[in-house]
Amino acid sequence: MFVSTCLHLPHRRDDSSNDLIEEFQVPKVPGTCRPSQLPVYLREANKETPHVKYFQKQLSFTLQADGMLCNSVEEIEVVGLEALRNIMESKPVWTVGPLLPSYLLQGNNQNKNKVSVVSQSRTGKEFGISPESCIEWLNLHEPSSVLYISFGSESAINASQMMELALGLEKSGKSFIWILRPPSEFDIKPEFKSEWLPEGFFERMNASNKGLLVKKWAPQLEILSHKSTGAFLSHCGWNSVLESLSQGVHIIGWPLGGEQTFNSKMLEEELGVSVQLANGNEDEVLSEDVKKIIEQVMNGSNGEEMRKRATVIAEKISAAMREDEGGHLKGSTIRSIGDFLATVTSK
User: Which InterPro entries match (predicted)?
Assistant: First the structure.
């Protein structure tokens, strides 16, 4: 999702603090935002901050381009693409997403549930569990009964949040797959320590088969495309959002940086396929809140409505990549790619 980092915040009464600003607008983008939705580095920045200068310079270069390719889908990111086209004025914006393996967009469950090495080849990472073992575990669970939890490759929640999340998961009684990395206070590279979770948590989850705890990496595409996966607790990074929605999996949002808060805002307010649990690794998170949100999203009428909306979005994403045998009926992404290639070759 494209979000302008060139924000024009209201004048502050106290130049050292943004506390008095309740909301602001991003130029040419509908609606309002709150300072709390900004990453900390932007919340505490001013026009002289080095990374703000860097962002402004990069944005200036971007606006000088002849056009823009976006890993998005025309029918999904309607408001954001309209805003981007307003910013780009008469220059073309081509939607060429989602950048996913074709077998995941064919709407065929037999293809979806096959074991693939695509995830590993895309990430270039070594998995903490094999795709075969992961799918074998998922096959033991009922459809839409498993919560998948991952905060991406570069982000982490803090130690207190991690402890409360584990307690909330156990209280909810829901089955889950959790990709574990060290809390944000620690270096992300070392081995995960059991002391960062409640005492005996690993043993209890293994014994009950309720939780599959995976260190380092997991085959995310295979997990999201499996029929047993019912929801995704995510940092709302854009790649993860597209992967989840392409499989009709709704989301519990926990953005941790960058544009992720705005992605979470869009998922909840525009698409109605997400509920936000927390924002960043500064929020206080309690196990009872975790339990409540999980039950809301995995059970009941609210969860069912989000699941239905996510299924409709998955169908739209699949249709965007569709082309009939004669080449006459083309989805929006196929048309956009064709227009981009025609534009490039004509020049």
Answer: UDP_glucos_trans
Query: What local confidence, expressed as pLDDT, does residue 114 receive?
Result: 46
Q: Is 193 helix (H, G, I), strand (E, B) or coil?
A: coil
CA distance 342 to 344: 6
* 346 is a domain residue: no
Q: In 3-state terms, the chain is what percent helix, strand and coil (to 5)? A: 45, 10, 45
* CATH code, domain with 261: 3.40.50.2000
Domain count, the chain: 1
342 within some domain? no
Q: Which residues contact 74 (CB under 8 A, 6 or more apart)?
A: 81, 95, 320, 332, 333, 336
pLDDT of residue 76: 94
Domain span at residue 225 reads 104-318
What residue spans of the chain are helical by DSSP H? 40-43, 50-63, 78-88, 109-112, 118-123, 131-138, 159-172, 201-208, 220-224, 238-246, 260-269, 287-298, 300-320, 332-346
Asked if the structure places residue 73 within a domain, the reply is: no
Are 297 and 306 in contact, with CB atoms under 8 Å apart?
A: yes
Q: From the DSSP assignment, how many helices (H) and strands (E) are in the chain?
A: 14, 8
DSSP labels, 56-77: HHHHHHHHTSS-EEESS-TTTS
Instruction: Tell me the per-residue pLDDT of 110-164, one tens digit each, with 9 for 90 and over.
Output: 444 444 444 545 555 667 788 999 999 999 999 999 999 999 988 899 999 999 9
Q: Cα 49 from chain centroid?
A: 28
Taking the C-alpha atoms of residue 253 and residue 237, their distance in angstroms, rounded to an integer, is: 10
Residues 6 or more apart whose CB falls under 8 angstroms from that of 339 comprise 92, 94
What share of the chain in percent tops pLDDT 90?
Answer: 61
- Predicted confidence (pLDDT) per residue in 181-200, tens digit: 999 999 877 889 999 999 99
Q: Classify residue 323 by its DSSP letter.
A: B
CB crowding 24-48: b at 16 or more within 10 Å, else e: bebeebeeebebebbbeebeebeee
First to last CA, the chain: 28
Amino acid 39 reads P
Q: What is the pTM of this model?
A: 0.87
90 assigned to some structural domain: no
